[in-house]
Amino acid sequence: MGKGRIEAFSDGVIAIIITIMVLELKVPEGFDLESLRPVAPVFCAYVLSFIYVGIYWNNHHHMFHTVQKVNGATLWANLHLLFWLSLLPAVTHWLGESHLAAWPTALYGVVLFMAAIAYFILAHVMIRQHGPDSTLARALGRDRKGKLSLVLYLAGVVFGFVMPSVSVALYTFTAAIWLVPDRRIERVLKE
Prior knowledge:
Layout: H1 4-23, H2 40-65, H3 72-86, H4 88-98, H5 102-130, H6 135-140, H7 144-160, H8 164-178, H9 183-190
Helix pairs in contact: 1-2, 1-3, 1-4, 2-4, 2-8, 3-5, 4-5, 5-7, 5-8, 7-8
């Protein structure tokens, strides 16, 4: 089957995720810069999560650009990814409101870890359908950056219970290494 519906559905879900996250932001009580202080942690968590959703949207777009068709396994793997991404608004708000309490910080990392696992599964389901010599398989290669991200997320989860600020630094660093869309796919598509 064609890939148009899965791309349109994914785009819609991702747009809703961003909308839900922004609706969780509260307007400051006052009208001076000091009134921003209470909402700053929630805003910072929102910015980080917005970047993550943007990264997933960009890389999802690039990945689907490498294939012409999908199958039932791809549909389910994609839903699995969207499930974990749909939890981002809840953990983002909890993280921001908690001022880096242990459980919200660790659970934020669990959701990031599971979304990365789901993306990995989706990519490999698509590679299995299109073959080991497919554009996507060639582009992803060994996926060192993806594997490094998993390690960083797990470290962030562990640090969430002992040094939450280190967790957030790890989550931020991981986002930074993915901020530029995955050039591996663009390189292979130019061949």
